[in-house]
Specification:
alpha+beta, 2 helices, 35% helix, elongated
Length: 81
């Protein structure tokens, strides 16, 4: 997508589950989005097209079951035109 639309950018938004302190979860979300950024750069995507952002556990459901917690651990791709 980014190769076909060089003027667009992606925000890589890191999320995690509710376990851990807010500070730890923000750092974890940043590491998670940073890992995806590094991987995309190995695919030839320009670093100028990628921005990372950590949401930590802000959108996580407190006390969620294991399957919901697994869904909370993710990186979302947001397209900026």
């Amino acid at each position: 997508y980014l190769r076909a639309n060089p003027g667009h950018q992606l925000i890589l938004e890191g999320h995690c589950d509710w376990k851990g302190t807010p500070e730890y979860n923000l750092a974890l979300g940043e590491r998670r989005s940073g890992s995806v950024r590094q991987y995309m750069e190995t695919l030839g995507i320009s670093s100028a097209s990628l921005e990372t952002l950590s949401k930590g556990d802000l959108n996580a459901m407190d006390g969620a079951a294991a399957n919901q917690m697994a869904e909370d651990r993710r990186v979302e791709f947001l397209v900026v035109r």
